[in-house]
Amino acid sequence: MGKSNSGFSAAGLRRVRDVLERHVESGRIPGAVALFSRGGETHVETLGTMRHDGGEPMRRDTIFRMASTTKPVAVAAAMILLDECRLRLDDLVETWLPELADRRVLKRIDGPLDDTVPARRPITVRDVLTSTFGLGMDRTALGTPLMNALFEQGLTPDLPEPMPEPDEWIRRLGALPLMHQPGERWQYHISDDLLGVLVARVTGQPLESFLRERLFGPLGMRDTGFHVPVGKMDRLPPLYAPDPRTGEFLVWDEAEGGRHSAPPAFQGGGFGLSSTADDYHAYFRMLLNQGMHGTERILSRPAVQLMTTNRLTPEQQAARTAMARDSVHVSFGQGQHGGWGFGMAVRTYRGDPSDSSAGTAEAAPRSTPTRRTSSPESCSPRSGCPSPTRRG
Phi/psi of residue 162, each to 5°? Predict the structure, then answer.
């Protein structure tokens, strides 16, 4: 069949390049970088240019804005803290984030902000890691007082108010009620940004500093961070968005002077990293190796299993599936063919390969179990400390 020892086939790689070329030739993207890895062999394709109007060609070391694919990377910071028993899954987050003590919950999602009831219990680390702490980007609730407040107070990326530094961000978040009771319902995104603030409080370091020290440095992820240094700016393409009236692609964020050209006030676990194909590959190769990078252990095997195994209850998953079904134009496959681990979607069964969920941004590594399994919930064996969970 023309396969090499690695399992790649020349014909298969040609077909992949043909597909990528058609995307570039369509005019919808100016260029692309694609990386394929199997065993010890890596294959990279670079096509097109960095701008719609031409310019420099795409390169293997082109730097991209990672947007929500920041989530599966940033969550590793919390998993390191779990390995070291500096966090435990059933710890109350108010220990480090007193702004989130004594939560109140809306009686109705579309109700006024002061029409609330007390939360039935405090928020735990587990709630934050599984995106079920009670607040998130609910596209089905756009226009409600709470969603309006999230946008107006700069608690979400981009619109319309710049996000403040972490202490002010958590103060504003703590002044708002929850949409749902803690642990009741899966909701997108805000948990991940909250996780970044939690890591910073626990470690006493900015999120990026901790990631660089414990993850990016050991993995050799030299081009990953929350901004692009001046000396690398020529490797960052502009970001385009279509004009809603004409469909013409317009520059939404230039490289120089843009959102990634200087350190942001807010370093969130849900968005904001920029990286390269090789850096991202190094991270997921570590997950595929069950936490090992060469001879160095980055995460314990139980930590990787927790991240990459479905952690949602059937009730939580049903709500997530409904969001995907009812808001498919914005969810683009979230909720189909599986569940949610820590910081990423996980597949629990194989569906139609033409389905949109194949493009889910937070897709787990290919070694993710294809059925729900019982993952260990203990600290790393090497730490010698007791279980991070406290069962009542």
Answer: -60, 145
Handedness of CA 276, 282, 283, 287 (dihedral sign): positive
Those residues whose C-beta lies under 8 Å from the C-beta of residue 150, and which sit 6 or more positions away, are 137, 156, 176, 190
- Among 270, 284, 305, 301, smallest CA distance to 219 is for 284
Query: At 297, is the secondary structure helix, strand, or coil?
Result: strand
Of 174, 65, 78, nearest to 130 by C-alpha is 78
Cβ-in-10-Å burial (0-12, 13-18, 19+) of 255 comes to buried
H or E stretch covering 151: helix 145-152
| Stated pTM of the model | 0.86
Q: What is the pLDDT of residues 328-356, one digit of tens each?
A: 554 444 556 678 999 998 887 776 554 43
Q: What CA dihedral angle connects 372, 376, 313 and 178, to 10 degrees? A: -140
- Integer Cα distance of 145 and 139 in angstroms: 13
- 249 vs 22, 54, 241, 242, 293, CA distance in Å? 18, 14, 5, 4, 40
Give the strand pairing for 41-51 and 239-242: unpaired
pLDDT digits (tens, 9 = 90+) for 248-280: 889 999 999 999 999 999 999 999 999 999 999
Query: With 0-12 CB in 10 A as exposed, 13-18 as middle and 19+ as buried, what is 345?
Result: buried
What is the secondary structure of 172-232 as a DSSP string? HHHTSPBSS-TTT----SHHHHHHHHHHHHHHTS-HHHHHIIIIIHHHT-TT-BSS--GGG
Contact partners, residue 255, CB within 8 Å, separation at least 6: 228, 233, 234, 236, 237, 238, 261
Cβ burial, residue 150 (10 Å; 0-12/13-18/19+):
buried
Which pair of tokens denotes residue 339? 């569940």
What span, in angstroms and rounded, lies between the C-alpha atoms of 174 and 48? 46
Calpha distance 85→267 (Å, rounded): 23
Q: Which residue has the tokens 């939404």?
A: 252
